[in-house]
Amino acid sequence: MYFNILTLFPEMFNGPLNESMIGRAQENDLLDINIINIRDYASGKHQVTDDAPYGGGAGMVMKVEPVYKAWEDKCRNEKDSSPVILMSPQGRKLNQEIVKDLSAQEGLTVICGHYEGFDDRIRSSIVTDEISIGDYVLTGGELAAMVLIDAVARMIPGVLGDENSVINDSFYNGLLDYPHYTRPRSFKGMEVPEVLLSGNHAEIDKWRQQESLKRTLLRRPDLLEMKTLTDEEIELLEDIKKDLKVKKR
Q: Is the pLDDT reported for residue 161 higher than 80?
């Protein structure tokens, strides 16, 4: 899978996208990440990429020409209908379902906005989707783009060492992940749950399912409202609720 990233600050991507699993995935030709400097397509001696907004107002606005030219030169492909995504606080909020859908694409082109905003003709001429990583404002779209790329990349077969790691992630199946433990068995009086040491895989799976439901109920009950639960999950959830009521007394 490829990622084209249009940005005014290409150096910001050097560390995060060259380390850990993203770096290894590129070395193994599972990911092709192309960083495109928008400033290279700005005209004039000083390669200016922003200007004052028409109508007045605070801040500067990214110009349409250099962004369009960068996309046209490096990303435009009549045979490839992959999404062109603008990282924007006005976009739909990123979640795991969106990540799954995007990971099935041949590639993604990601545009990182900056300054006060961007000329809206960037949106109307190039962009096919807008994504936000949360209801807050960042200095630019670079950090948001890194979050998007990391989330999508881990869904691609081979990027993670163990494919089951993806399936067990929080949000993958609409629930938060269950607790994890490793050695030592005892630490400052805190013990690993006995069921995890039993070797009974059916009981371990049931415990993990219970803990996943319990964590979701306590921390993100809104996720349960959106998820279609199985009969087994409904039964386990009722038992969890009864147990919590008893403990509150």
A: no
Catalytic residues: 89, 116, 154, 169
Query: According to the model, what pLDDT value does residue 141 have?
Result: 96
Give the residue from 58, 61, 72 showing the smallest Cα distance to 119: 61
CA pair distance 220, 110, nearest whole angstrom: 30
Contact 110, 148 (CB under 8 A): yes
Q: CB of 29 within 8 A of CB of 83?
A: no
Q: Which residues of 43-57 are buried (b: 16+ CB within 10 A; e: fewer)?
A: eeeeeebbeeeeeee
List, as one string, the DSSP characters of 64-107: HHHHHHHHHHHT--TT----EEEEEEEEEEP-HHHHHHHHTSSE
CA-based nearest residue to 3, from 92, 137, 94, 112: 112
User: For the chain, what percent of residues have pLDDT higher than 90?
Assistant: 84
How far is Cα 4 from Cα 75, in angstroms, rounded to an integer?
7
At residue 25, what are phi and psi to the nearest 5 degrees? Answer: -65, -35
Q: For the segment 80-112, what is each residue's pLDDT rounded down to a tens digit? A: 889 999 999 999 999 999 999 999 999 999 999
SS3 191: strand
Looking at the DSSP bridge assignments, the partners of residue 114 are 140
Ranges of H-type helices in the chain:
20-27, 64-74, 96-103, 120-125, 142-153, 164-167, 201-219, 221-226, 231-248
CA 116-17-79 angle, 5° bins: 80
Q: How far apart are the first and last CA of the chain?
A: 54
